[in-house]
Amino acid sequence: MELLSLFYLGSFLFFLFIIWKHFDEKRHQQCYILEYQCYKPTDDRKLSTEFSGDIIKRTKNLGLNEYKFFLKAAVSSGIGEETYGPRIMFAGREESPTLDDGISEMDEFFHDSIQKLFDKSGFSPPEIDILVVNVSMLASIPSLSARIINHYKLRPDIKVFNLTGMGCSASLISIDVVSRVFKSYKNVNALVITSESLSPNWYSGNDRSMILSNCLFRSGGCAILLTNNTTLKNRAMFKLKTLVRTHHGAKDESYSCCYQTEDDKGYMGFHLGKNLPKAATRAFVDNLREIAPKILPTRELLQFLIVTTVKKLKRNGKQGRGVKTSAVNFKTGVDHFCIHTGGKAVIDGIGVSLGLEKYDLEPARMTLHRFGNTSASSLWYVLAYMEAKKRLKKGGRVLMISFGAGFKCNSCLWEVVRDLEDANVWEDCIQRYPPESLSNPFLEKYGWIQQEDIATFKLPE
Question: Active site located where (predicted)?
Answer without folding.
Answer: 168, 247, 336, 340, 369, 373
